[in-house]
Every structure is written in C-alpha cells, then in structure tokens.
Amino acid sequence: MNMKKTADLVDGYDEKLTFCDYPLTKFGRADGFEGEIVTLKTFEDNALLREILEQPGKGRVLVVDGGGSTRVAIVGDQIAALGLNNGWAGLVLNGSIRDSVDIDAMDYAVFAVGTSPKKSTKTRAGFRDVPVTFGDMTFTPGHYLYADADGILVSEKPVE
C-alpha cells in the first residue's frame, strides 16, 4: 500500500484536515498508517480494547482515549499483535504501552503517550464508538486518520 505522507496531505488538503497537537511517540517498525476511525474511551482498563482488536480490523484505525494515563499500560505486545494479525491499520493511544522493545520489533505502528511496566485492569469499563477528544481535536468514528512520524491528521472523508 502506498501510504500518504502527512506533510504532503497538509500541502494539498490543509483546509480539509485537523491536526492532532499532542506529544505522541510512535512505536513499531511501520512508518505509519491510515484508515477509518473506530474509537474507545476508557481509563486504565484494556478489556474492551482487547475485544475490539480480536475482531477483524478491515484496515481501520483504533483511537483510544485512555485519559492520558502513564501510570499503567493499556497495550502490550500481545494486544498490539492482535491488532496486527487481525488487520487493524494501527493504534493511537491517549495512554501508555508496555513491552515497548517487542512492539518496536513489529511491522506495525502504535502511537502512545509513553510507557509503563504496570498492567491495566480488566473490568470492561469504557465506551465504544463515541467521539473522543485529545490533542485539541475530536476523533469521530467513521472519519479518516492519517499518521506517520510527522504527526496525525484527521479528515471527515478520505483524501485522494
């Protein structure tokens, strides 16, 4: 797949794009990803996140508002591998990961606030397919996300 570079997208479609102004770090070997947005809002719990990634991703992107927590990780190597193996284009987390060395070795990309060795709870707390807001923007289910080392952009409809 020929991934669109975010810098090129801004040059050609800036008025149609929203920029996520938030200090997320990219983990994984993939340069980035693009796809339709699926959302989850949760805090320090990854049971629903795992359930979503166990389903076929069909090239979609999972955006998780984890409240910005760096106290516990909501994604580790096993959950990232679920996303990769089930066809999810990538993950954007307003939260932390663990097993960062293992995730960095995957041909996948996960954007996250940081890392923590601590596990999350597994109570299924959270809300799926609701708009989530961080980085001075709202991620809306069904909109399209483009991510690479330069940043994260969202548009209402796919850009050509």
Q: What does this 3D model show about the protein?
A:
The protein is an alpha/beta fold. The protein has one domain: Ribonuclease E inhibitor RraA/RraA-like (Glucose Oxidase, domain 1, 3-Layer(bba) Sandwich), CATH 3.50.30. The chain is built from four helices and 14 strands. It has helices at 6-13, 47-53, 77-85, 100-104; strands at residues 17-19, 25-27, 32-41, 61-65, 73-75, 90-94, 96-97, 110-112, 114-115, 127-128, 132-134, 137-139, 144-148, 151-155. Strands 1, 2, 3, 4, 6, 8, 10, 13 and 14 form a nine-stranded mixed beta sheet that branches. Strand 11 and strand 12 form a beta hairpin. The longest helix is centred in the middle third of the chain and has 9 residues, at 77-85. It is globular, with a radius of gyration of 14 Å. The chain starts with 5 loop residues before the first helix and ends in a 5-residue tail after the last strand. The model has no long low-confidence stretch (mean pLDDT 96). Belongs to the class II aldolase/RraA-like family. Its cofactor is a divalent metal cation. It is an enzyme of class 4 (lyase).
> CATH homologous superfamily name?
Ribonuclease E inhibitor RraA/RraA-like
CATH top level label: Alpha Beta
Report the average pLDDT across residues: 96
Under the CATH scheme, the architecture is: 3-Layer(bba) Sandwich
Order of helices and strands: HEEEHEEHEEHEEEEEEE
Short structural summary:
The protein is 18% helix and 34% strand. It has helices at 6-13, 47-53, 77-85, 100-104, and strands at residues 17-19, 25-27, 32-41, 61-65, 73-75, 90-94, 96-97, 110-112, 114-115, 127-128, 132-134, 137-139, 144-148, 151-155.
